[in-house]
Amino acid sequence: MLTLIILGVILLIIFLIVVSIYNNLIKERNRVKNAWSQIDVQLKRRYDLIPNLVEVVKDYMSYEQETLTKVIEARNFAMNAKGIKAQAEAENMLTGALKSLFAVVENYPQLKANENVSRLQEELTSTENRISYARQFYNDSVMQFNTMIETFPTNIIASIFNFRHMEFFVTPENEKENVKVDLR
Description:
The protein is mainly alpha-helical. It has a domain at 23-136: LemA-like domain (de novo design (two linked rop proteins)). It is 77% helix and 0% strand.
């Protein structure tokens, strides 16, 4: 009888450990999903600001229609990207297009002095900072989740319940190249 009680206690402890590990895996997976949602919220804000900026600057930049077209195309491409890797690439393309637009704005004193353009640039800069923070939080959450499903004994429970690695939101290789500065 004592053997059955001891065996029952051991099985109960094992069951409680499995439940605890499983619940932690669920919690971490949901943290990753929440982190991705935070990126999504900031990206939506960015997508909403871009048409306003383009509308304000297009009258001043009659000779720069190609730049404006690239910004809108990059925005549309980013909005339709599916998957984390594709989203990262599309967002980096959009960031590059916006940098080009801001560089062109510098060449137009009237545009540069326009209060609406300044306000929109500030809002986009603020949004870019929020996106950067949200990406960092997402990647930290993914790292924590992936580490959890790789460590013992959690990896056994993760394997049984089919938990899979999450993808990091990474910068494409061509964005990691050193900037060339020529001060001649």
